[in-house]
Amino acid sequence: MPVSRFLVISRPAAILLMMAATAHVCAQSIDEQIKRVTTTLTPSIVIKGTPEKTHTLADSMTKYKVPGVSIAVINDGKLAWAHGFGVKAADSKDPVTATTLFQAASISKPVAATAMLRLVEQGKFALDTPINTYLKTWQLPDNEFTKTEAVTLRRIISHSAGLNGHGFPGYASGVKVPTVQQILDGKAPANTQAVRVEMTPGTKWKYSGGGTTIMQLAMTETTGEAFPALVQRLVLGPIGMKNSAYEQPLSNAKQKLAATGHDDEGKPIPGRWHTYPELAAAGLWTTPTDLSKWAIEITEARAGKSTKTLSQKMATEMLTEQKAPSGLGPMLGGAGEAMSFEHGGSNEGYRCFIVYFPVLGRGAVVMTNGEGGGMVYRQVLSALAKEYHWPSFKTREIEPIEPSASILEQLIGECPIPPASPTDKPPSVLLTQENGKMMVEIGKFMPKTEIVLLANDDLIVLENGFELKLIRGNEGRVSHLMLGATKIIKK
């Protein structure tokens, strides 16, 4: 009998070979996607008719002095890839990996809100009961603003409780750290003002990390559990966020896994990072992969496919607008397929962002260890939006116009941003002209960068899409500028 020239393969072996081949193709595809995303970054804003200019992620990190970036991408409702870029610290060669820990900063808030909502479902809290009902060692003082409306958990996590305390600077290495009660009363060694009601609860949206800190105290006093253990039991553990912890200060074991924070010059923060006793507002250490697990879980719960943390009813309410733009924890945007939930984070030396489109099952988390990370992650998000066909975050094309000499005369100068409350100390918007270009600077929040004028009287920052609006009065002269809903007037 002649020997067959064909190799006979058993069915199980054939299946294994097919699986291996498929995995190889998928790996190649993922590698190609990562390459496209990280080598074809563009500015958030481009001028119509100009040649497309792309640059690499490494270029952007160098420009904005950000040593390390970590990215996790969700596609088709599951983690597509996670990858680290750069180094954990500018003065080391230790690479950022997918398991490197970053401070999540304000992304801590929606994760902490998930734990609080689970306590609501367990009957420990009610969303619309006055918050003082749940506080034992400290009480939020009543005043003229609380005569008719109460501060509640619903209003706290939707930033509509009328509370001050936008954010926290944290505590440098070696500095004494206050208790939560000292923070809430603004007493030494706290480095922020007392958290108080400064407008009628329920009337306006006003971001308040101070309110989230009140929620933190209510959670620990109601359950009798330390906050890190409580959130581990209610959220982090059930979801499988194994590289996450509300640890402040960070344990020695986890310090080896953590990226060092860096200032706007790319220099390491003294002591590597600040400590944030405001755990619920800013104290989560985590990875993009773990935050992706949280976003996927909330979406699965909303679809009735999981109850690891929240019921379908509660997850739906979490992603329902309470006071624009907030849901019960996350910020919300878009509608239908374009609906998204998202949140940014900004701690000393760290910048990060999460966005997820639950209907499409697409999104990403980007975490950085530099003050300039906000500029970097915006460009990464634009590249991801292009690669994965997101309905928003794509590069915006604009047609600037040349401002007249009269308009320039009216604009150039300092425009103080009015405080939203008596204790707020906002920076000024400074507009200047250099080498024929109009420039804008907003304190430490935005270094000097080019801003252009559009025909509809919008002023747009080319680097990041930041917008100001000209408002004209008599004879077409600029009477003031608008920053969102805030009126600002030139000095």
UniProtKB/TrEMBL annotation:
<protein>
    <submittedName>
        <fullName>Beta-lactamase family protein</fullName>
    </submittedName>
</protein>
<feature type="domain" description="Beta-lactamase-related">
    <location>
        <begin position="57"/>
        <end position="374"/>
    </location>
</feature>
<dbReference type="Pfam" id="PF00144">
    <property type="entry name" value="Beta-lactamase"/>
</dbReference>
<dbReference type="InterPro" id="IPR050491">
    <property type="entry name" value="AmpC-like"/>
</dbReference>
<keyword id="KW-0732">Signal</keyword>
<dbReference type="InterPro" id="IPR012338">
    <property type="entry name" value="Beta-lactam/transpept-like"/>
</dbReference>
<dbReference type="InterPro" id="IPR001466">
    <property type="entry name" value="Beta-lactam-related"/>
</dbReference>
<feature type="signal peptide">
    <location>
        <begin position="1"/>
        <end position="27"/>
    </location>
</feature>
